[in-house]
Design a protein that fits this description.
The chain has 479 residues and is mostly beta strands. The chain is 11% helix and 43% strand.
Amino acid sequence: MKTDPKNPETPPPGTKDRRGPGLRATFGGFALLAIGLMLAPTTARALPSFARQMDMQCTACHTEFPMLNQFGRTFKLTGYTESADSGKQLPLAVMLMPSITSTNTAQAGGAAPGFGDNNNYAMTQASIFYAGRLFGSFAKDIFGTNGAAVANKFGIFAQVTYDGIAKKWAWDNTELRFANKAEAGDNDVVYGVYANNNPAFQDPWNSTPAFGFPFSGSGLAPTPAAATLIEGGVSQQVGGFGAYAMVNDRFYFDVAGYRTLSTSFQKSMGVDPTGESQISKLAPYWRFAFERPAGEGRWEIGTFGMSASIYPGRDSSEGSDRLTDYGFDTQYQCPTAHGDFALLASWIHEHQSWNASEALGDTENLSDSLDSFKVTASYLHDKTYGLTVQYFSITGSKDEILYSGSQNGSPASDGFVFQADYLPFNKNGGPAFWPRSNVKFSLQYTMYNRFDGARNNYDGAGANASGNNTLYLEAWIAF
């Protein structure tokens, strides 16, 4: 999440942590809900509305949800519109994330208003989705047979989320697509156009920021202050339009442009625009990738990026800053005799020109740089037991004003995320009264070697990065 130059110790107001907000809950409620789901009768899916539309189980599109496999990427590329055409239904789904958070060191004054210093119970996220074919299974009833042939090429992913820490509703990841298939000479092409509110949300791989690991995490634990713009820095604050094409299941091309939405619109969608970075002109986004079979699996390598002129804190009095992100990623997925293996890596370099912020006294330097690196290994055994390990690193220029809350003005943070998952319904499904439901129980531990410039000082001198280590227990429930 991008730091606010006017208040570098915290993310800009109105910017959401993509790992999820929270809703106050009790441990008893958490336990009863988990037990109730465990004892419920059976049929599974990351977004059950997609599963009901396809009349398939979760494992058709995912390894360990929400990570997509090859079929899942094709479903996304075709605009969420593929369907088994069975039954009449609207593409509705609900997601709940009850959780427990414990940090190595208690947070004086409370983890957030209304929460204790440590060992907090919360509903990390509660979301409602309208996701699938835009007109559900009713296009033929509305437009007739010929009209439905066109209408059913429109797909939607719309998410509304309750943030229990801020105690408010707001729109979340939202996208409208038109997708089609064609032939160009001897080449098979899937192409489409889209409008969304989160750069990289449209990407079909899990090695880019919008849907990268960790897919969820605590909203009640300290997290590093610095992140590149494309890593959620403008999510839900912008609107963008783009076009993409996948040629022969190998070559992927995607270009788009984004601009900050008006303050009145953001407020109407539950977002507080106060102090946010405003994109002053159309910001280009690009993505190019190559994927091919590799042994029994699939291998992808690509590049992506975004460049934006920014008014810091929506203040245009001194002109604009310029932030340019260049990213490279790779992903390898392979089914094994007893499970599914994935290896992912990404590196993002951000060049920061602070022409406006330096003049306003919000940065020490006229230019800085920031680098974000992640490498992740994941294995799902028998579609039920998952283990994921990630190393992450944030490094960049020292800036005493921009990172005034950091030790020595440094944005440096690095460490590991370890996560164990149990998916009891992943193969056979959830409650019969709402088919294709699913649940994932996760135990996640985040361990820091450095945190906002602070290292682990075993002699007790100075700040200690390990004080921010976080144990997080979560149930990800989708129905």
